[in-house]
Amino acid sequence: MSPPYLLLDIDGVLIPFPGADGSTPATHVRYDIVPTGRSADNPVTIWLNPAHGRLLMDVIRAGLVTPVWCTSWRQDAAALIGPLLDLPTWPYVDLPRPRITTSHPNGYLWKRDHVHTWLGDAPAVWIDDDFTSLDHDWAAERTIRGAATLLIQSDPRVGLQAEHLAEARAWARRLLAVRTAAPATPSETEAA
Ligand SMILES: [Mg+2]
Question: Which domain of life is it from (predicted)?
C-alpha cells in the first residue's frame, strides 16, 4: 500500500512572511534566486530554514508519505527551492495561473479544485497557510468517503514548525497501520 501524499506549500510554510519591518526569522538563511521567466539581473530574495530539509527527510525516509509540491512556485519548487534544503526532486501539482485577487475566490483555497482532481481518491496530508473553514469541510467529507485527508495550517508569519511534521508523521503512521491491519478482501485473498 503506497503511503499518503504530503502536499507541501512554500509561501507561508517554508518561507514565512516577513515582519512589518521586512525582517525575516533568525532561523532562516536568505538566498537570491531567479524564478522561471525572470531575467538573471532581477532575482527574488527568499529565506529558508536549513532544519526544514532534515525534518522533512526524516518523515519521507521513514516511508510514511509521498511528497509533492503544491505551490504557486510550481516547477521552481523542485528546481530551485528544494535543492537549497538538500531535498531530492519531487513532483509538483501543476497549478494554473488564475487571474485572482484573493487566494479564496470562491470562499476556499484557489488550489483546492486542482488538488481535488489531482488526488482522485488518494489519501493526503496537506500543509498550507491559507485554508478556510470550507477547506476543512472538504477534508472532512473526503475522509468520510474513505480518502483520509488531514489539513495542517501554518501561521504564515511563523511558517512550518517541527510539531506540524510530527502531526503529519503520527497521522500517516496511524493510517498505514489501519490499512495494514484491515482484513483482506476476497479478491485480494484470491490474488494471493
Ligand atoms: Mg501559502
Answer: Bacteria
Ligand 1 midpoint to CA 62 (Å) = 26
Residues 84, 6: Cα–Cα separation, whole Å: 19
Give me the residue spans of the domains in the chain: 5-14+50-182
pTM of the predicted model as reported, rounded to 2 decimal places: 0.91
Query: Please, what sign has the CA dihedral across residues 56, 1, 117, 91?
Result: positive
Q: Ligand 1: distance of its center to the CA of 178 in Å? A: 31
Which residue is listed with cell 538566498? Answer: 31
pLDDT digits (tens, 9 = 90+) for 69-128: 999 999 999 999 999 999 999 999 999 887 888 898 889 999 999 999 999 999 999 999
Residue 50, CA distances (Å) to 35, 60, 130 in order: 20, 16, 23
Q: Are 130 and 103 in contact (CB under 8 A)?
A: yes
Q: Which three cell numbers stand for residue 14?
A: 517554508
Please state the φ and ψ torsions of residue 159, each to the nearest 5 degrees: 85, -165
The yes or no reply on domain 5-14+50-182 and CATH 1.20.950 is no
Strand partners, 5: 66, 124
How remote is the CA of residue 9 from the centroid of ligand 1, in Å? 6
- Residue 51 three-state SS: helix
CA 97 to chain centre: 18
Alpha carbons 122 and 73: distance in angstroms, whole number: 23
